[in-house]
Amino acid sequence: MDRQVRVALLGAGYMGRLHADRLSKIPGVSLVSACSLPVKDAENLAASFPQWKINTYDDFDRMLEKESFDALYVCIPPFAHEGQVEKAAKKGIHIFVEKPIALTTERAASMVEAVKEAGVIAQVGYHMRFGAAVKELKKLMEDGTAGKPTLFDARYECNSLHTPWWRSKDKSGGQVFEQVIHLYDLSLFFLGEPELVSGFTANLCHTHIPDYTIEDTSVSAIRFKSGALANIAGTNNAVPMAWNNPFTVVCEKLTAFFTDANEAEFVFTAGEKPERKVVKGDRDMYLEEDLAFIASIRGEGPRAAPIEEGYTGLRLVDAVVRSSMKNGMPVVL
User: Fold this and answer.
1) 126, 152, 178 - which closes a domain
2) Residue closest to 99 by CA, chosen among 162, 38, 185
């Protein structure tokens, strides 16, 4: 029988609801409490999942005091991180935290240290790592089939005003921090530790919107300790209501052209004649990451996307932004 896992939720917006839905599909998992501002969001979420008797709160400290749970899902915007992860870790609670894990590297470092001291499991919501094509390439890299990784080339494309907090620099950190970070994480996942980054950002098409204070265009060049290179671009000026993130990974013996994390064409280049293979899956990446988190709590699987790697990703996007503020001057990581 599956070990029972009791879960609490901090943040009952889009991502909170998404994870609640996926958790409802995992045997032995129950959502016992939810906290949000306004509390009505938590109440609406509770009403959507009547199979669980979810207690609702508008005060995290009170929920932490009153409720008993094994794991906490933190699904709040970057600016709202005010020590909740540290408090939960101190009580021995395992943590799933959506990206970016914080608005500043100082806050992120505090979270990592708290998790380390408590010895709890902490996973970051990098769902793209769980795509069928991403997992296949990672396997081929690990067993040597792909050869040495050399280049990561990626774009994040959308066109939306999103929510008011998202388009505020002081609350989201910007598109690089809040969205394109998924691609920066994949560059780390495939190429390893970053060494040097140069970045540029601009707001080219949203200057007429008074509360739009973030970039809508970005580009960066990254050098990794292995010698591999990456270039990553982001735009919020592309096709309205479409979120595209194509990327290419070039390795010594294999080039992978990704439509998205679930689908790619692999071209094997080691032989005299290139061989092509299409990898296409329909994985629910959010369900897969939640399954991995619950399995790690139960001791049934390795830790995926640990918070230390969330910290590395945050340091990388922070370096992109800092470089852009210095006219692209390289930043050493």
Assistant:
1) 126
2) 185
